[in-house]
From TrEMBL:
Name of the protein in its database record: GAF domain-containing protein
InterPro entries (UniProt xref): GAF, GAF-like_dom_sf
Highest taxon, organism lineage: Bacteria
Domain GAF: 116-214
Annotated organism of origin: Streptomyces piniterrae
One family name in Pfam for this protein: GAF
Length: 425
């Protein structure tokens, strides 16, 4: 297939494709092996869904009630793009066969619009405002997979991980802040198998680009921004131009952004490679390749960035300093360059995670604690689970599940009778 993000080749039989993928889906659930006929993007999503223990039956959880939803989405950046979504997708959303949905970076549906009959049908699988449709909670689906892959994608019928969703086909595209490159959410169209065509994918991609342009026109701000949380390859945006960096270049840019005064080659080499012996030519070669990518942004003697760089790391730190823990959690999409072994990056990564955890443990807000436990990096954080248990009323039924998880983790860590603090790190 020429475009791996499209669900089917032109002329393919949807019914036959559905039967074939459904058999592959059943085989995967039974044995964990993905048949070669399954698209790579879908196979990877199935594996992520299985690793996250997403339900293969059942409804997505609703995380935002009416009052919380109204306050949250009114202040969300994508609220300003809703006129664009309605203009470009509004007719489709009212034709009796489709829904238009917009979600935030966590996969929570903020707007779901369309014909009342189609909406009632979708409500049976909790495709409603306030529900969380990321892969972790709803399995493979267009908005959730678009967020995970950071790319527009179609998900066709039986490609959905959750069997309750397999009668639907959807196409979604991620949305970014044109100035910073940060993920804002995704826009989605959901309907029947007729959506498995190049037109639906092109439509949501064009809609996402139009919305991003609209938001950029609203701000009209230029600058240099670096997004590196939850990503192995950082995203650099210079005056609206986006550039995905390689892993070593991502490490260099993060380290230089933390040292606006500049770093000598020797010091930068230690932060990148540690104390092991490394020839100076190795670093010079990396810096030469990076300079070809970013141009005059990178200066030498010492190595430094010619312009101030805003990073999602510093945004989270600023929110923590001012006590805006909810905003910090919104921006924190995962550990800093999680696969990096560079000593300087590892120290920054550990320091930020420690600050976030300390803030959670001090604030002791059950919703925020629960939010941390529902992430890949917090699901086995015993100290947070223990804190969550302690914040809930003693005889509340809601206490049972986190208590059971905490007990399981204490046994797994060999800490029965010990302080949960011993399990941190």
């Amino acid at each position: 297939m020429g475009n791996p993000w499209l669900a089917m080749e032109s002329g393919a039989d949807p019914a036959e494709r559905t039967r074939t993928v459904r058999r592959a889906h059943a085989a995967f659930l039974a044995g964990g092996t993905v048949a070669p006929l399954v698209r790579r993007v879908v196979a990877e999503s199935w594996r992520r869904s299985a690793d996250a223990r997403a339900a293969c039956d059942g409804a997505a959880p609703v995380e935002l009630d009416e009052a919380a939803l109204r306050a949250y989405r009114d202040g969300h950046p994508l609220a300003r793009a809703m006129p664009v979504f309605r203009e470009l997708l509004g007719a489709i959303a009212q034709d009796g066969a489709h829904l238009m949905a917009v979600c935030d970076p966590q996969g929570r549906l903020l707007w779901v619009e369309g014909h009342p009959g189609v909406r009632r049908s979708a409500e049976r699988m909790n495709f409603v405002v306030g529900a969380r449709w990321d892969e972790r909670h709803a399995g493979t689906n267009a908005p959730g997979t678009a967020l995970a892959a950071d790319h527009a994608v179609q998900i066709f019928a039986a490609e959905h991980y959750n069997r309750q969703v397999q009668r639907w086909t959807c196409a979604a595209a991620p949305l970014h802040d044109a100035r910073t490159g940060r993920l804002l959410g995704a826009v989605d169209i959901t309907g029947g198998n007729h959506l498995a065509s190049p037109h639906s994918l092109a439509l949501v991609q064009a809609t996402a680009r139009a919305a991003e342009a609209h938001l950029a026109a609203c701000t009209r701000q230029l600058g240099v921004c670096l997004t590196a949380l939850g990503r192995d390859e950082a995203l650099l945006v210079v005056d609206g131009k986006r550039l995905r960096l390689g892993r070593r270049h991502s490490e260099i840019m993060v380290l230089l952004s933390r040292h606006p005064e500049g770093l000598t080659g020797e010091r930068l080499s230690v932060l990148l490679y540690g104390e092991r012996e490394t020839r100076p030519v190795t670093l010079r070669a990396e810096m030469s390749r990076l300079r070809k990518l970013v141009g005059p942004l990178l200066e030498a003697r010492p190595y430094r960035l010619a312009r101030p760089v805003e990073t999602d790391l510093t945004t989270v730190e600023a929110d923590l300093t001012t006590g805006e823990l909810t905003s910090a959690l919104d921006t924190y999409r995962g550990p800093l360059l999680p696969s990096s072994e560079a000593p300087g990056v590892r120290r920054l990564r550990a320091a930020l995670e420690d600050r976030l955890r300390r803030a959670l443990l001090v604030t002791r807000d059950p919703d925020q604690l629960r939010r941390w436990t529902q992430t890949a990096w917090g699901e086995e954080d015993l100290e947070i689970w223990e804190a969550l248990v302690d914040t809930l009323p003693e005889h509340s039924p809601a206490r049972a599940a986190p208590r059971a998880t905490a007990d399981r983790l204490r046994v797994a860590y060999g800490l029965a009778g010990d302080s949960p603090a011993k399990a941190t790190g």
